[in-house]
């Protein structure tokens, strides 16, 4: 329970940041004022300014849009494709199931960031291509999850009853099997979102993700590393927000898994 609450509180901060970025930013995130570079926190600039005199808080808030949009879009797409492929593989078995799961094994063999780097290198930089990369490496984990669940669930009474009433394959898959797996999918979704945000920030840090002038947490961290001695607090700010988002999703996933286990037992 504590894990679930902690994760929820951490993510609440990120959600509030996102809402503020949609409603009204404190100032123009791209407005430069070299004379005011590395200004300390003040009433006008709550978190100070960066090397170009831009408001750090405004840039941090605006960057939450790309981080959450790209990770949610990528993981959501990967979840949809992966669940369908895994369900079909587990239900049909045979050659179809083997081909699908061997393809998933090939994708699963690559570390997430390495696979994302390869795809972005081929497709090009930008938010859309990062989203596609996150979607691709998210597919295998959801496919494996759904594949295992479908194999297990085919022995359940309600699945046997549906078959005895000559229910179609699509009905059994989409009306019975996939909805029954939603608690497990929710846990995996939360964990995958943490990985998605980490990948988006890493690619932006390397200059392959969100492109200027739109700010990104990874891009801010990249810019800040050159000024660690001049402004030690500067790199800590985007780093702390990244930690909040990634740890928040991981703790939320662990909390949901624990609650589901308690409910089942």
Automatic annotation (TrEMBL):
PROSITE patterns: ABC_TM1. It is a multi-pass membrane protein. The keyword Transmembrane applies. One of its GO terms (cellular component) is plasma membrane. Residues 64-253 form the ABC transmembrane type-1 domain. It is found in: Cell membrane. Keywords: Cell membrane, Membrane, Transmembrane, Transmembrane helix, Transport. GO terms for biological process: transmembrane transport. Belongs to the binding-protein-dependent transport system permease family. This is ABC transmembrane type-1 domain-containing protein. It comes from Paenibacillus campinasensis.
């Amino acid at each position: 329970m504590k894990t679930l609450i902690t994760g929820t509180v951490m993510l609440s901060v990120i959600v509030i940041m996102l809402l503020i970025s949609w409603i009204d930013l404190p100032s123009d995130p791209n407005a430069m004022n070299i004379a005011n570079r590395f200004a300390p926190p003040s009433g006008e600039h709550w978190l100070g300014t960066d090397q170009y005199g831009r408001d750090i808080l405004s840039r941090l808030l605006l960057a939450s849009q790309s981080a959450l949009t790209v990770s949610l879009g990528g993981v959501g797409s990967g979840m949809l494709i992966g669940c369908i492929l895994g369900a079909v593989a587990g239900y049909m078995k045979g050659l179809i199931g083997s081909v699908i799961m061997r393809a998933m094994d090939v994708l699963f063999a690559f570390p997430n960031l390495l696979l994302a780097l390869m795809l972005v290198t081929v497709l090009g930089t930008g938010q859309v291509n990062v989203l596609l990369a996150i979607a691709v490496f998210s597919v295998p984990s959801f496919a494996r999850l759904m594949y295992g669940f479908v194999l297990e669930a085919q022995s359940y009474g309600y699945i046997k009853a549906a078959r005895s009433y000559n229910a179609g394959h699509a009905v059994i898959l989409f009306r019975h099997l996939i909805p029954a797996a939603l608690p497990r999918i929710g846990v995996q979704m939360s964990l995958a979102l943490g990985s998605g945000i980490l990948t988006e920030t890493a690619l932006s840090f390397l200059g392959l993700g969100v492109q200027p002038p739109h700010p990104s947490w990874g891009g801010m961290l990249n810019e800040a590393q050159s000024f660690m001695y001049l402004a030690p607090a500067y790199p800590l700010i985007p780093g702390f927000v990244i930690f909040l988002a990634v740890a928040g999703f991981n703790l939320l996933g662990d909390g949901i898994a624990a609650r589901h286990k308690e409910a089942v037992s």
